[in-house]
Specification:
Blueprint (H helix, E strand, L loop, with lengths): L1 E5 L4 H12 L3 E8 L17 H14 L3 E5 L1 H17 L6 H20 L4 E3 L5 E4 L5 E4 L17 H4 L2 E2 L7 H10 L21 H9 L4 E4 L5 E5 L26 E6 L4 E5 L6 E11 L8 E6 L7 E8 L2 E10 L7 E6 L2 E12 L3
Helix pairs in contact: 1-2, 1-6, 3-4
GO cellular component, one term: cytoplasm
Subcellular location: Cytoplasm
Keywords: ATP-binding, Cytoplasm, Disulfide bond, Nucleotide-binding, RNA-binding, Transferase, tRNA processing, tRNA-binding
Length: about 350
Amino acid sequence: MRVLAAMSGGVDSAVAAARMVAQGHDVTGVHLALSKNPESYRSGARGCCSLEDSHDARRVADKLDIPFYVWDFAQEFHRDVVEDFVAEYAAGRTPNPCLRCNEKIKFAAVLERGMKLGFDAVATGHYARLERRADGRVTLHRAADAAKDQSYVLGMLNQEQLAHCLFPLNDVEKPVVRQEARELGLGVAKKPDSHDICFIPDGDTQGFLGKHLGEQRGSIVDAEGAVLGEHRGHHRYTVGQRKGLDLKVPAPAGNPRYVLRIEPKSNTVVVGSREELAVRELRAIRPTWTLDPVPGPWRGEAQFRAHGTPMAAEIEVVGEELLVRFDEAASGVAPGQTVVTYDGDRVVGSAVIAEARGCG
């Protein structure tokens, strides 16, 4: 099988490519250039967008003796990920840029180009598991390593895309991956994982958004509309945030306040108690399905953060929307986040949260 190995320059994608070679596939490595000037996104070997990462990926390909290419997706990345990130915050929503990158770049764009070039599949270093059914279709499941499971950020993939995906690290834990890299003599064996947004080099998300959206002063109010303070732009806040509010009026009981919601039209940030953050139901739009939507209300789990705890819920498709009713109250649910639904360890699908409803 002709396999296109997406090589970020990290240890996971390196071992994934090595496993494909060991299985006897005809493997070609490809690294994605996501910026015309890599240093504008990140310097240092901690991400997937630096010049060092490109060099690391090439050295691994040389070690594995496979062809290697760099594909320029800078324009698509800036349009579909960076600009989308800024626009979502401007609209008062909280996006996940890594999930967006998977959706628009690492799978949709790479798969499309790879298929046109005659490749049968794309292999990545994601921690997730695929099962091939008797009817030829594919299901997506959580990985063996629960601590590294990345099925959440793959929850937007559809059946056609999954049919051409390979996740060679589905059955191993991270220490084993590093050991394999050491045994193969790969220089990335000790390379640290990346946890930051790759296009924000210093990790200062507020500063990045401030440069793009400027300063737009507005009011911080409580749920009744009483003004408690002033902010320099609602894009500097996210639901559930506690620090950095700088309120002039303390809470009556001295309890901390949290961001409850963002109201972009009035440029207002609404704050309240931790109890007011509680969410029992959410409405999500633009659902996608890894296999088929489950008809009628069904019992499953819902997850709305990449490393969040799956929560038991009743899930229902209503027209073009998804309704999720949690058994227990969730906290810090924000419009713009992605909710991924599970049936056991199988990913059913995903949708973008449009509204979170409290316990009242």
